[in-house]
Amino acid sequence: MIELTLSIIKPDGVKKGLSGKIISIFEENGFEIKAIKKLRLTKKEAESFYFIHKERPFFKSLVEFMTEGPVIAMIIAGEDAIQKNRNIMGATNPENAAEGTIRKMFAESIERNIVHGSDSPESAKFEISFFFNFFEII
Ligand code: CMP
After folding, report:
1. Which pLDDT score, from 0 to 100, does residue 56 have?
2. Could you list the active site residues?
Protein backbone atom coordinates (compact mmCIF):
# COMPACT_ATOMS: atom_id res chain seq x y z
CA MET A 1 0.00 0.00 0.00
CA ILE A 2 1.32 3.48 -0.87
CA GLU A 3 1.71 5.48 2.35
CA LEU A 4 2.81 9.00 3.23
CA THR A 5 5.12 9.62 6.15
CA LEU A 6 6.89 12.60 7.68
CA SER A 7 10.65 12.84 7.67
CA ILE A 8 12.68 15.56 9.38
CA ILE A 9 16.35 16.24 8.78
CA LYS A 10 17.20 17.49 12.27
CA PRO A 11 19.44 20.51 13.07
CA ASP A 12 22.55 18.30 13.28
CA GLY A 13 21.91 16.84 9.80
CA VAL A 14 21.29 20.27 8.25
CA LYS A 15 24.35 21.79 9.97
CA LYS A 16 26.61 18.96 8.78
CA GLY A 17 25.51 19.50 5.16
CA LEU A 18 23.86 16.08 4.92
CA SER A 19 20.50 17.22 3.52
CA GLY A 20 21.27 16.40 -0.13
CA LYS A 21 22.73 13.02 0.77
CA ILE A 22 19.70 12.10 2.88
CA ILE A 23 17.24 13.18 0.19
CA SER A 24 19.20 11.08 -2.34
CA ILE A 25 18.98 8.07 -0.03
CA PHE A 26 15.19 8.45 0.04
CA GLU A 27 14.99 8.79 -3.75
CA GLU A 28 17.34 5.86 -4.34
CA ASN A 29 15.05 3.79 -2.13
CA GLY A 30 12.06 4.61 -4.30
CA PHE A 31 10.44 7.33 -2.20
CA GLU A 32 8.77 10.30 -3.85
CA ILE A 33 9.22 13.72 -2.17
CA LYS A 34 5.63 15.00 -1.97
CA ALA A 35 6.42 18.21 -0.03
CA ILE A 36 9.50 19.83 1.48
CA LYS A 37 10.31 22.91 3.57
CA LYS A 38 13.16 24.36 5.63
CA LEU A 39 12.21 26.09 8.85
CA ARG A 40 13.40 26.79 12.35
CA LEU A 41 11.10 25.41 15.03
CA THR A 42 10.19 27.64 17.96
CA LYS A 43 10.36 26.20 21.49
CA LYS A 44 6.54 25.97 21.55
CA GLU A 45 6.42 24.18 18.20
CA ALA A 46 9.09 21.66 19.21
CA GLU A 47 7.28 21.03 22.52
CA SER A 48 4.00 20.38 20.73
CA PHE A 49 5.57 18.20 18.03
CA TYR A 50 7.14 15.97 20.70
CA PHE A 51 4.27 16.23 23.23
CA ILE A 52 4.16 12.44 23.66
CA HIS A 53 7.62 12.62 25.21
CA LYS A 54 6.84 15.47 27.61
CA GLU A 55 7.26 13.35 30.74
CA ARG A 56 10.54 11.83 29.58
CA PRO A 57 13.79 12.95 31.25
CA PHE A 58 15.27 13.94 27.87
CA PHE A 59 12.35 16.19 26.84
CA LYS A 60 13.94 19.57 27.71
CA SER A 61 17.20 18.69 26.04
CA LEU A 62 15.37 17.30 22.97
CA VAL A 63 13.46 20.57 22.59
CA GLU A 64 16.70 22.58 22.93
CA PHE A 65 18.35 20.42 20.29
CA MET A 66 15.43 20.62 17.84
CA THR A 67 15.38 24.43 18.08
CA GLU A 68 19.14 25.05 17.84
CA GLY A 69 19.03 25.51 14.05
CA PRO A 70 16.90 24.94 10.97
CA VAL A 71 15.36 21.60 10.07
CA ILE A 72 14.07 20.23 6.76
CA ALA A 73 10.63 18.67 6.94
CA MET A 74 9.47 16.42 4.13
CA ILE A 75 6.55 14.26 3.23
CA ILE A 76 7.86 11.14 1.55
CA ALA A 77 5.64 8.59 -0.14
CA GLY A 78 6.04 5.01 -1.24
CA GLU A 79 5.07 1.41 -0.70
CA ASP A 80 4.89 0.73 3.06
CA ALA A 81 6.62 4.12 3.56
CA ILE A 82 6.29 4.37 7.36
CA GLN A 83 8.10 1.12 8.15
CA LYS A 84 10.45 1.37 5.18
CA ASN A 85 11.59 4.84 6.28
CA ARG A 86 12.21 3.52 9.80
CA ASN A 87 14.35 0.71 8.34
CA ILE A 88 16.36 3.19 6.27
CA MET A 89 16.88 5.50 9.30
CA GLY A 90 17.95 2.69 11.64
CA ALA A 91 17.45 2.41 15.41
CA THR A 92 16.98 5.61 17.47
CA ASN A 93 20.32 4.95 19.17
CA PRO A 94 23.01 4.87 16.47
CA GLU A 95 24.94 2.34 18.56
CA ASN A 96 22.11 -0.14 17.88
CA ALA A 97 21.48 0.88 14.27
CA ALA A 98 22.20 -1.56 11.45
CA GLU A 99 25.12 -0.97 9.08
CA GLY A 100 24.20 1.22 6.11
CA THR A 101 21.35 3.02 7.89
CA ILE A 102 21.30 6.84 8.04
CA ARG A 103 21.76 6.92 11.81
CA LYS A 104 24.57 4.36 11.76
CA MET A 105 26.38 6.34 9.09
CA PHE A 106 25.88 9.86 10.43
CA ALA A 107 24.41 10.09 13.98
CA GLU A 108 26.43 11.13 17.04
CA SER A 109 24.11 9.98 19.82
CA ILE A 110 20.63 8.78 20.73
CA GLU A 111 19.48 12.42 20.85
CA ARG A 112 21.49 13.94 17.99
CA ASN A 113 20.36 11.27 15.58
CA ILE A 114 20.11 13.22 12.29
CA VAL A 115 16.58 12.26 11.19
CA HIS A 116 13.08 11.78 12.51
CA GLY A 117 10.42 9.57 10.93
CA SER A 118 6.80 8.95 11.88
CA ASP A 119 6.40 5.67 13.77
CA SER A 120 2.78 4.76 12.94
CA PRO A 121 -0.08 5.74 10.62
CA GLU A 122 -1.59 7.83 13.46
CA SER A 123 1.62 9.74 14.10
CA ALA A 124 2.21 10.19 10.33
CA LYS A 125 -1.21 11.83 10.07
CA PHE A 126 -0.54 14.16 13.00
CA GLU A 127 3.03 14.97 11.97
CA ILE A 128 2.21 15.64 8.29
CA SER A 129 -0.56 18.05 9.25
CA PHE A 130 1.77 19.68 11.80
CA PHE A 131 4.08 20.88 9.00
CA PHE A 132 1.99 20.94 5.82
CA ASN A 133 -1.45 21.88 4.60
CA PHE A 134 -3.40 20.10 1.88
CA PHE A 135 -2.30 22.50 -0.89
CA GLU A 136 1.40 21.94 -0.20
CA ILE A 137 1.22 18.20 -0.90
CA ILE A 138 1.94 17.53 -4.58
P1 CMP B 1 12.95 10.73 17.24
O2 CMP B 1 12.83 9.54 16.36
O3 CMP B 1 12.84 12.07 16.63
O4 CMP B 1 11.90 10.61 18.44
C5 CMP B 1 12.11 11.18 19.69
C6 CMP B 1 13.50 11.72 19.86
O7 CMP B 1 13.91 11.85 21.21
C8 CMP B 1 14.51 10.72 19.29
O9 CMP B 1 14.42 10.67 17.90
C10 CMP B 1 15.79 11.25 19.85
O11 CMP B 1 16.25 12.42 19.16
C12 CMP B 1 15.31 11.66 21.25
N13 CMP B 1 15.56 10.59 22.25
C14 CMP B 1 14.95 9.40 22.34
N15 CMP B 1 15.41 8.70 23.39
C16 CMP B 1 16.33 9.49 23.99
C17 CMP B 1 17.16 9.34 25.12
N18 CMP B 1 17.12 8.22 25.87
N19 CMP B 1 17.99 10.34 25.43
C20 CMP B 1 18.02 11.46 24.70
N21 CMP B 1 17.24 11.68 23.60
C22 CMP B 1 16.42 10.69 23.25
Report:
1. 98
2. 116
